[in-house]
Amino acid sequence: xxxxxxxxxxxxxxxxxxxxxxxxxxxxxxxxxxxxxxxxxxxxxxxxxxxxxxxxxxxxxxxxxxxxxxxxxxxxxxxxxxxxxxxxxxxxxxxxxxxxxxxxxxxxxxxxxxxxxxxxxxxxxxxxxxxxxxxxxxxxxxxxxxxxxxxxxxxxxxxxxxxxxxxxxxxxxxxxxxxxxxxxxxxxxxxxxxxxxxxxxxxxxxxxxxxxxxxxxxxxxxxxxxxxxxxxxxxxxxxxxxxxxxxxxxxxxxxxxxxxxxxxxxxxxxxxxxxxxxxxxxxxxxxxxxxxxxxxxxxxxxxxxxxxxxxxxxxxxxxxxxxxxxxxxxxxxxxxxxxxxxxxxxxxxxxxxxxxxxxxxx
Amino acid sequence: xxxxxxxxxxxxxxxxxxxxxxxxxxxxxxxxxxxxxxxxxxxxxxxxxxxxxxxxxxxxxxxxxxxxxxxxxxxxxxxxxxxxxxxxxxxxxxxxxxxxxxxxxxxxxxxxxxxxxxxxxxxxxxxxxxxxxxxxxxxxxxxxxxxxxxxxxxxxxxxxxxxxxxxxxxxxxxxxxxxxxxxxxxxxxxxxxxxxxxxxxxxxxxxxxxxxxxxxxxxxxxxxxxxxxxxxxxxxxxxxxxxxxxxxxxxxxxxxxxxxxxxxxxxxxxxxxxxxxxxxxxxxxxxxxxxxxxxxxxxxxxxxxxxxxxxxxxxxxxxxxxxxxxxxxxxxxxxxxxxxxxxxxxxxxxxxxxxxxxxxxx
DNA sequence: GTGAAAGCGCTAACAG
DNA sequence: CTGTTAGCGCTTTCAC
Lengths: 362, 362
Known about the structure:
Chains A, B: GO terms for molecular function: DNA-binding transcription factor activity; transcription cis-regulatory region binding. Two copies of one chain form a homodimer. Chain A is α/β, with parallel strands linked by helices.
């Protein structure tokens, strides 16, 4: 078929208008190549390459350059990326692996990464790993692009073996900074975020705390549990109940129901590992006839748009997702340039809204 | 620099171990090529290509094939995609252009498209257009991959001129089926969805309806307004108020406040162009001391996870996003195969939940 | 200041 | 059954 296409596209190489013409079976115009442009402009193909690559200063005369640009415009010339990539051996493209698309955190992460990449003339291809935080199967099958490097966010440490096999530089985001062979790491100060939540609740007089934890085995959630325990250490408060849930509203609601109706004293506050879980907790409260925040305080984590879609709005921890994406991409660029990459931990901040209030009397 | 790399990687072409070795400035292993594999297996480079491409049956003996596979594994050989793409003239990669990443609809769209693509051995690269539904600036700068085709969802008709310039086959999703030069179109029966909403509310006795419309100039929202007017035509009910809002919760809340506090009789039901707007409407109601659904019924559109994150859960219109993505990708595959693509319109369905109820007695 | 030429790594036709 | 060969379109020396 490729041969057929050549036949049709180049059969009249030495006469008649070569372009536009029909290529293959669907009526798509055969793309002009730099040789076509050269011919049209009456220059050599190399000159076209020089001009199009903005490398002509002092090598090609101004009128010639202008002629080339004109011919290129005329023919609708667009350089063939496959050829350029092959020749250059690099693609100026990075892959961003995320466990989910649905989550606004990752959308913002992408935005930041794409911005930083653009500054370096690099593109970003998103790969939502089908297995969530678990093993990421061959992203090269999906994002078929040849890649210069990979950034992965919030994945389990061993989820990236397939990807690492590609031998590409890897930057890990929101992941265990210890147990990793990534070239660089960018993290959030998750522990501090949880400390802030705990202090906030402590200050409001809460002593019996329930923890709605994400039932996902990844660094970011392990840190949350540990930090919460740390923060409560030596205070009058304690986690009286921990319930695990998948990261969605329904699972969060059921976990919160368990936490609120289980044996023992009822928690006056529910700390949730994510805003989605917190939304579920709010639903659970309402169904149990508890008012938020009067009877029950609820905190989230992430500050997704969901946090302000609810009423009352969620007290939660704001994660600088875009900054993480930017820092991650910059780290990758540094690695690609052979510069040493330092490990970063970005600050996070509690956003106090209406879902938390003073602990109910007693 | 590229020259340097070649030097380092291939300087000892005729002696010593060629692989692994150091390439460029960062310590990444130079990738083995099919020639390296051929040398290691003691066969010609073409044979390697045949074996790796699963095209060896009846052309290469079993032992030879096994030797090649062994050598490839040994060397960690991965075919160079840039080279393959250049040679084949196609990349088996499609671009999916969406106006937003944050929206679960588009996440599901991607899932469906990726599944259908995988069946054809095709990859999907996601391009979240920075300008939302507006003009999509050069996605080729971002997704640097060479592409075989483009699928665009919910974009303004003239937002794709840059993309179309690439001369690639284009399939449009959730877009005006008339005013388009796309090779194929896949749509949702949005009008029917709005009709269902109207009938539902009519049946509950609502006569004064407010419309919280998306202030976005795209087909999908124009249809909603028109269909609503159609559906109410000749009934006892009418749209007493229309307010426009950007597609987020806050804007939705403000628009709903305007609709509920403006002059004239207050609507007993608010039809919203999207679940996010409906979430805003619910917040507005609560702030105005109105109970949903007792004092005010609210409907959404899309059936995002947000719809069930709220309490009460939203009555909304479920859009088969994954099916749209699948159909879109299949249409693109058909176009690429030169087959005629038929225009499709997928059915949508009302999901009645707790945010709608009987109209409050006059 | 411009052109000629050498490949990047791969596939597919063709020759043995 | 296996090897040789001719490029895909581009970038980058190197001659002129």
